[in-house]
Amino acid sequence: MPTALPAIALPAAAWIRSFAGVLLGAAAAWPAAAEIQTFDDHAAFVAITASTDATGPYANLGRHGGAPIAVGTVTLVPVSPLWLGGGTTVDNWTTLLPGHDLAMDGLEHLDVVLTGPAYSFGFDVVEPSTYARPEGGCWVNPCVDSSFTVTLLSGAQAVASFGFNAADDVAAFVGITSSLAFDRVQIREVIGNHDDEFFGHFYVGQTPVLAVPEPGAAALWLAGLASVAALARRRRVVP
User: Fold this and answer.
1) Burial group, residue 90, by CB count within 10 angstroms (0-12, 13-18, 19+)
2) Which CATH topology does 36-205 take?
3) 205 - beta bridge partners?
4) Which of 53, 47, 52, 48 is nearest to 36 (CA)?
5) Which of 60, 80, 160, 181 is the most buried (most CB within 10 A)?
6) Integer Cα distance of 127 and 155 in angstroms
7) pLDDT (tens digit, 0 to 9) for every residue of the chain, 239 residues total?
């Protein structure tokens, strides 16, 4: 009579089933990566996303400091002191943007907190390349060609991120739409110094434009592991 094989596969199968169950539980909560589309054209951004001006015209408040400040329907949270409108010697930081604009001491690090979930966000920005004063210059010699990252967050969870480097000495536009909703935006200067870039109005859209993405490769891998566990569970001792 044939000798039965040792039943050594069963503990391994039980271990695989247990491990797969844990990982599949994690996969259920695994955040899908947002699909994004970026824009450098204001008119196209508004036409596609139906975004509206969230800040409206800035008041000429001068140096505000580093405390959060509500402007329109958003709250600006600067990392370094914020100037709204102009400085002690100028009424506007740049003539390339209409009305008053926004500047910051030090690196241009800024959070923009929204009143609710949004899918699109954009803003006007000017990158000066000369030291010219009183208006339009970077106020530091020499000017640095700055690069930035923009991160969209839902609560503490990052939804999407991208980088930009605005063209010099023009009124540039930076916009993004995401398949996943967000309620906070972080703007960070990753290359630069304490020379000035100037920000105009911020625009927010609450209408989804892009389709919500399917679960990623990680979730598919976990599903495959569950299949392995199922096969191990069905394995029997050969007579």
Assistant:
1) middle
2) Jelly Rolls (2.60.120)
3) 120
4) 48
5) 160
6) 30
7) 555 544 444 455 554 455 445 444 544 454 567 899 999 999 999 999 999 999 999 988 888 878 999 999 999 999 888 888 766 667 777 888 888 888 888 788 999 999 999 999 999 999 887 776 555 665 676 777 789 999 999 999 999 999 999 888 899 999 999 999 999 999 998 987 767 788 999 999 999 999 876 655 445 545 555 554 555 555 544 45
| Residues 6 or more apart in contact with residue 123 via CB below 8 angstroms | 173, 174, 175, 199, 200, 201, 202, 203
Paired tokens of 176: 């993004």
As a whole number of angstroms, the distance between CA 97 and CA 91 comes to: 13
What residues have CB less than 8 Å from 25, skipping those under 6 apart? none
